[in-house]
Amino acid sequence: MRIEHLTAWLDERLSISTLAAMVQKKEVPLHRHSIWYYFGGMTLFLFAVQVVTGILLLLYYRPSSEGAFESVQFIITEVKFGWLIRSIHSWSANLMIATLFIHMFSVFFLRAYYPPREITWISGVLLLFIVICFGFSGYLLPWNKLAFFATKVGTEIVGVIPIVGRPMLRFLRGGNDVTGATLTRFFGFHVAVLPATATVLIAIHVLLVQLHGMSVPPSLAEQSVKKMKFVPNFLLRDLIGWILAIGVLAALAALFPWELGEKADAFAPAPAGIKPEWYFLFMFQTLKLLPAKIWRFDGEVIGIMAFNFVALLLFIVPFVDRSPQNARRRLAFNLIGIVALLFIVGMTIVGYVT
Amino acid sequence: MGDIARERRGENPGYPERPGTSRRRFLDYLLGTSAIATLGAIVYPIFRFMSPPQVIESTENSVVAAKLNEVPVNSGKIFKFGNKPGILVRTSAGELKALSAVCTHLECIVQYRPDTKQIWCACHNGQYNLSGKNIGGPPPRPLEEFKVNTRGDDIVVTRS
User: Fold this and answer.
1) What distances in angstroms separate CA A215 from CA A27, A36, A126, one per listed residue?
2) A56–B5: do the CB atoms touch at under 8 Å?
3) Cα radius of gyration rounded to whole Å, chain A
4) A interface test, pick of B49, B51, B54 with most A CB neighbours within 10 Å
5) What's the rounded Cα separation, in Å, for the pair B132 and B115?
6) Strand pairing partners for B80?
7) Is B3's pLDDT higher than 80?
8) pLDDT tens for each residue of A213-222
9) B5 touches chain A (CB under 8 A)
10) A88 contacts in B (CB within 8 Å)?
11) For residue B78, how far is the Cα from the chain centroid?
């Protein structure tokens, strides 16, 4: 069969031309803030790297307290390029969280959540939490000492939330303590529940971006902004970024291979200087600095509740700040954003140096 | 006027298509080979990763398969020889035999049948005599036979 015939045959059944026309419609505004448009696509690319390397790791990984550590050890010492695949999975996860944060803050400061894009923002916030859950659950899977204690502390934090805390802790741990049961659960979340949820949310998120088009910051007049076709022009630019990302990942994996550490031991003391992953560090540091008692409540309970509250606030951002006309509110939101950013960066740095 | 603006109006952005031009051909060649090399650098590690590494097989040539009292007359016992199963048989005459327990047909694990006094594979009714020779059913080759010695109470099986 000739290729035109095949295309026509498929088109009749799948409406490829309609889809192609839809994709062709997408344009990327060109202005002085255009650089921020790269970070969403970069996050998506790194997610794809996670999916591919994650599936590869599944070929050898064994989710049990007896076998997990040894299987990762086997991957990085015996399996051809195992060290590479595993390191890329870890590094790409961290870079993805970094690009996701950049993406979120740029969307915040450029007001890309203004109507009609509220649901795009909400799906994005949900994806942020999903990605954090990915990080937290994946961290335990090598079953090393650091992961064991990080999970103990992290789930304990869930446990201090009033009323729902204890049942949630038991659900997460699969019992009262962090054991092999916890590992099995986290594995299930990490490779089934979270990927399925993330895939649906990403589809919604990307489709909504397609539907509403790329947001032009309200500070620029939309009519005067030049535009570039997404396919193929901007996509090719994205591609350059992704190729660079592969290079960076390979270099990081080769120069700074992700360590495996020592096997978890439920009867060994926590290693000295233990710290969470960098994206949890600002919360960890804040909790460390809070006094033991704030009025009549435990300091850590107040801190944890405050973080939960702020997380919930993220959802209502597009419903409170709705229009560029309200100048005072715009200023207030800029200030809130800057303070939040400075707080996160500041506490992370303090967490590192102390 | 920028190339992009012209492109948006459907005009050619000023690089006339001259397929024969050698510089263009050279650049296409560079781009193509780089793309292939990049793809190769990604696909090759993935491909190698997917093929499982050889697990070092136990090099032990001899193993204590059982105690003497564990194998009564006219019975058989499966034992671990490295990471493969072996079968130890005490014949009705009291003689000890050791063979590989992996059927040469489709690698099921064989057993000793006291009624027929033969080694039998339940999967496809393969039959071997007590020297491991394939005497009935689908097995194409005999079972590997091992040497048996007794050391005190222990039955020691050695690869011959």
Assistant:
1) 10, 11, 20
2) no
3) 23
4) B49
5) 17
6) B85
7) no
8) 999 998 887 7
9) yes
10) none
11) 21
Please return the burial class of A143, using the count of CB atoms within 10 Å of its CB with bins 0-12, 13-18 and 19+.
buried
Whole-angstrom Cα distance, residue B39 to residue B107? 39
Tens digits of per-residue pLDDT, A342-353?
999 999 999 888
What single-letter amino acid sits at A250? A
Instruction: Please provide the DSSP assignment of chain B as one string.
Output: --HHHHHHTT---S----TT-HHHHHHHHHHHHHHHHHHHHHHHHHHHHHSPPPPPPP---EEEEEEGGGS-TTEEEEEEETTEEEEEEE-TTS-EEEEE-B-TTT-PBPEEETTTTEEEETTTTEEE-TT--EEESS--SPPPEEEEEEETTEEEEE--
Beta bridge partners of B148: B157
How much is the pTM? 0.82
The pair of three-digit structure tokens given for residue B128, joined into one six-digit string: 């071997």
Note whether B52 contacts A79, CB cutoff 8 Å: yes
Whether A268 is covered by a domain: the verdict is: yes
Residue A332's identity, in one-letter code, is: A
Residue positions counted in chain A? 354
* Domain-embedded: residue A342: no
The DSSP result for A15-60, as a single string, is: -HHHHHHHHHH-EEEESTTGGGGHHHHHHHHHHHHHHHHHHHHHTT
Q: Is residue A298 situated within a structural domain?
A: no
* Residue A27 to residue A30: CA distance in whole angstroms: 9
ipTM confidence score: 0.76
CATH number for A226 = 1.20.810.10
Res. B1 pLDDT band, cuts 50 70 90: very low
Neighbours of A93 (CB within 10 A): 24
List of residues 6+ apart from A319 with CB closer than 8 A: A118
> Chain A contact for B38, CB < 8 A?
yes
Q: B69 CB near a chain A CB, below 8 Å?
A: no
Number of domains in chain A: 1
- Asked if residue A237 is part of any domain, the answer here is yes
User: Both tokens of residue A353?
Assistant: 């140096």
Question: B105 pLDDT exceeds 60?
Answer: yes
Domain range spanning residue A33? 28-273
Taking only the tens place, the pLDDT of each residue in A269-305 is 888 778 889 999 999 889 888 888 888 888 888 888 9
Question: Could you say which of B4, B42, B50 has the minimum Cβ distance to residue A59?
Answer: B50
- Rounded distance between C-alpha atoms, residue A111 and residue A113, angstroms: 5
| Sign of the torsion angle spanned by Cα atoms B45, B49, B51, B52 | positive
